[in-house]
C-alpha cells in the first residue's frame, strides 16, 4: 500500500533540500533569467530605439516636428539633450542609437525663403540604419507643407497665413501609397514577440536540467543509508519510490513556476490557454522526474549522477529544440527530435503561444508525453526499487 501522507512528506523534504542548497540557487533562478533576457533582447525584446533631440526652447515649429518624429511612441524613445556636444558624446558611446539637432530659429527659418537644415547623428552600427525612416518621414511631411505654404505665399504674400491651410489640406492631397506584401513562408519567429520565444525554450531546457541535478541526492541518500533506514520502517517500498519521484517532480515544477511567473510579470510573456499549457508542462514534469529517478537509480556516486544528469539534460535539450530552433534543423535531425519529449512539449507550447487553441489543438503532443511519462516512470520505479532493496 502507498501511504499518501508519507509520499507527500518525502517529496516535501526533497524540495526543501533543493531550495536550501545555495549552490543550486544560481542555476535555478539566476541563470534562466539571464538567458531569457539575452534571447529576448536578441529576438526583439528591445522595442524602443533611443534617439536624442536638441531643439530650441519655445519654438512651436520645432516642438511640432519633435512630436511628429515621436509618432505613437512605440518605435522611438525620444530624449531631450541640452547641447549638441553632449548629444554627439552620447551617440558615440552607445548611450543613444541616434540624435537629431533642430537649429535655433527653426520656426522663423521655415517662414523665410532659404533652406533649413536638420542634423541627424548616428554611428555606423546596423541598428541605426532603420532609425532614419520615421525621422525622414516626419521631416518630409514638414518640407511638403512648407513648400506648399511658400508657393501659396507667392500670390498672397503671407507664409504664416498659408501654412495653416497647407497643414489642414495635407492629408487630403493624393499621394503615392506603398503596398507591402509578404511572400513565402513565415519565419521561425513569426507570431512571437519580445521574450516569448526564448522563454519557451528555456522553460523546457531548465525544467529538465533542474530535475536532473536533483538526481545526485538520490545516490547520496542511498550512500548514507537513508533509503535503507526508510525501508526498515513501516513504510512500503512503493511509498518511498513514489515520494522520491514526487520530489523530483516538485523540483521540476518549481523551476517551471519560476520561469512562467518571471516571464509573465516582468517581460509580459503570454503562455496561451492556461489549461492546455498547464497540461503540457505537468506531463513534461512527470517525464523529467522519471528520467531523474532513473539516473539516480543507475548512478553509483553523487558526482556520477550529477554528471550523467547534466549530460542527458543538455543532450536531450539540444536535440529537442531547446538550444537549436526545431525549425532550422535538417530533416534527419527533426526526425530524431520527434522521438524526444522536449520537442513535443516545446512545439506544443509554441503552438499555443503563436496560434492559440486549447487542449484539442495539442492533443497529439499530450498523448506522446503521456506515453513517455508512463513508460519512463515505470522503468525508473522498477530500477529504483531494486537499487534500495538489492
Structural commentary:
The longest helix has 29 residues. Helix 1 packs across helix 11, helix 8 packs antiparallel against helix 13 and helix 11 packs across helix 16. The chain has a four-stranded mixed sheet with strand order 2-1-3-4, sandwiched between helices. The protein has 390 residues and is mainly alpha-helical. The mean pLDDT is 85. The chain folds into two domains: 238 residues, no CATH class; 124 residues, D-Maltodextrin-Binding Protein, domain 2. It is elongated and about 105 Å long. The protein is built from 16 helices and four strands.
Question: Can you describe this structure in just a few lines?
Answer:
The protein has 16 helices and 4 strands. The protein is mainly alpha-helical and 390 residues long.
Instruction: Write down the oligomeric state.
Output: single chain
Shape: elongated
Strand content: under 5%
Q: What is the radius of gyration?
A: 30 Å
Spans of at least 5 consecutive residues whose pLDDT stays below 50 are none
Helix-strand topology string: HHEHEHEHEHHHHHHHHHHH
Main sheet attributes: strand count, strand direction, barrel closure: 4 strands, mixed
Helices, strands, pairings?
Elements: H1 4-20, H2 22-42, E1 49-54, H3 60-70, E2 76-80, H4 84-92, E3 98-101, H5 106-110, E4 119-122, H6 132-156, H7 159-169, H8 196-213, H9 215-223, H10 226-232, H11 237-265, H12 274-298, H13 302-319, H14 331-337, H15 341-355, H16 363-389
Parallel strand pairs: 1-2, 1-3
Antiparallel strand pairs: 3-4
Amino acid at each position: 500500500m502507498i501511504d499518501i501522507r508519507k509520499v507527500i512528506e518525502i517529496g516535501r523534504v526533497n524540495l526543501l533540500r533543493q531550495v536550501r542548497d545555495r549552490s543550486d540557487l544560481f542555476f535555478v533562478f539566476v541563470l534562466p533569467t539571464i538567458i531569457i533576457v539575452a534571447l529576448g533582447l536578441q529576438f526583439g525584446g528591445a522595442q524602443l530605439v533611443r534617439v536624442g533631440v536638441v531643439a530650441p526652447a519655445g519654438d512651436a515649429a520645432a516642438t511640432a516636428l519633435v512630436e511628429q518624429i515621436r509618432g505613437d511612441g512605440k518605435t522611438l524613445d525620444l530624449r531631450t539633450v541640452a547641447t549638441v556636444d553632449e548629444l554627439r558624446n552620447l551617440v558615440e558611446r552607445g548611450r543613444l542609437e541616434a540624435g537629431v539637432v533642430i537649429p535655433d530659429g527653426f520656426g522663423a527659418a521655415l517662414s523665410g525663403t532659404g533652406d533649413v537644415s536638420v542634423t541627424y547623428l548616428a554611428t555606423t552600427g546596423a541598428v541605426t540604419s532603420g532609425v532614419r525612416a520615421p525621422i525622414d518621414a516626419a521631416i518630409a511631411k514638414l518640407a511638403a507643407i512648407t513648400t506648399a505654404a511658400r508657393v501659396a505665399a507667392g500670390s498672397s504674400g503671407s507664409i504664416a497665413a498659408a501654412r495653416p491651410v497647407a497643414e489642414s489640406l495635407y492629408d487630403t492631397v493624393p499621394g503615392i501609397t506603398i503596398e507591402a506584401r509578404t511572400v513565402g513562408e513565415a519565419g521561425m519567429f513569426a507570431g512571437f514577440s519580445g521574450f516569448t520565444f526564448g522563454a519557451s525554450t528555456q522553460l523546457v531546457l531548465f525544467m529538465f536540467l533542474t530535475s536532473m541535478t536533483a538526481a545526485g541526492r538520490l545516490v547520496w541518500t542511498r550512500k548514507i543509508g537513508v533509503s535503507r533506514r526508510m525501508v526498515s520502517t513501516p513504510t512500503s517500498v512503493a511509498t518511498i519510490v513514489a515520494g522520491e519521484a514526487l520530489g523530483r517532480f516538485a523540483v521540476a515544477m518549481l523551476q517551471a513556476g519560476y520561469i512562467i511567473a518571471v516571464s509573465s510579470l516582468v517581460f509580459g510573456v503570454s503562455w496561451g490557454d492556461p489549461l492546455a499549457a498547464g497540461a503540457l508542462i505537468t506531463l513534461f514534469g512527470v517525464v523529467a522526474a522519471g528520467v531523474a529517478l532513473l539516473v539516480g537509480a543507475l548512478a553509483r556516486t553523487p558526482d556520477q549522477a550529477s554528471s550523467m544528469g547534466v549530460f542527458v539534460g543538455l543532450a536531450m535539450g539540444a536535440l529537442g529544440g531547446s538550444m537549436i530552433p526545431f525549425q532550422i534543423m535538417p530533416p534527419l535531425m527533426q526526425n530524431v527530435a520527434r522521438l524526444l519529449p522536449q520537442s513535443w512539449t516545446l512545439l506544443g507550447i509554441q503552438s499555443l503561444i503563436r496560434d492559440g487553441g486549447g487542449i484539442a489543438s495539442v492533443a497529439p503532443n499530450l498523448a506522446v508525453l503521456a506515453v513517455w511519462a508512463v513508460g519512463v516512470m515505470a522503468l525508473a520505479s522498477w530500477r529504483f526499487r531494486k537499487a534500495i532493496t538489492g
